[in-house]
Each structure stands twice: as structure tokens, then as C-alpha cells.
Design a protein that fits this description.
By secondary structure, the protein is mainly beta. It is built from two helices and eight strands, in the order βββββαβββα. The protein has one domain. The strands form three sheets. Strands 3-4-5 form a three-stranded antiparallel beta sheet, with no helix packed on it. Strands 6-7-8 form a three-stranded antiparallel beta sheet. A two-stranded antiparallel ribbon has the order 1-2.
Length: about 100
């Protein structure tokens, strides 16, 4: 496989996501840095899984909710797919369209 390309578990060939520095703050809690100076609190057991992506803070257009979101580009089609942190941690349910 060429450098900078990896095989995603769902069969997509995507550009490799950037790794981010996650700060473990206790035996079971970690801070995941987002954009805009924000962070998400995650379980320490999810650090390895989440640190493979660069996460951003996205505001909902409907209310004042802020979500952690990452994106990936599918190289074969050139399309960009985004996904939220909570769905990512739940295992990408098929209804996840970004």
C-alpha cells in the first residue's frame, strides 16, 4: 500500500488521518483536544482509537450544542465523509451520514 494511504475497516481507502496528543488525566479519563481551544472528555480506554484522528469542534445550526467531528477523504471517489465522536465511539452505526 502506498505511503499516506491505509485500508479503513469498512473498506475505504483514505488519506491517513493526523495523530493528536491526547492527555490522560486519570486512570479512566482523558482530554481530547478539539479546535477553538475546546476539548472532549473521553474514557482512557478510547485514547488509542481517538488519537488517530484530528478532531474539530462543530456547532449545531439548530441549537447551541457543540460536537466533536473528524473528516476523511475517500481517495477513489474524492468524496469527504465526516463523522462525530460519539458515533465513532459507538462503532459507526450505518445511519451515520455526518
Amino acid at each position: 500500500m502506498p505511503i499516506g494511504v491505509y485500508q479503513h475497516k469498512r473498506g475505504y481507502r483514505t488519506s491517513k488521518p493526523r495523530r493528536v496528543a491526547v492527555q490522560v488525566i486519570g486512570p479512566s479519563i482523558a482530554y481530547l483536544p478539539l479546535t477553538r481551544g475546546l476539548f472532549a472528555i473521553i474514557d482512557a480506554e478510547d485514547v488509542e482509537k481517538c488519537s488517530q484522528w484530528s478532531w474539530g469542534a462543530t456547532s449545531s445550526p439548530h441549537d447551541s450544542t457543540t460536537y466533536a467531528r473528524a473528516t476523511e477523504r475517500i481517495l477513489e471517489t474524492g468524496k469527504v465523509r465526516s463523522f462525530t465522536l460519539h458515533r465513532f465511539l459507538l462503532g459507526f452505526p450505518e445511519t451515520c451520514n455526518g
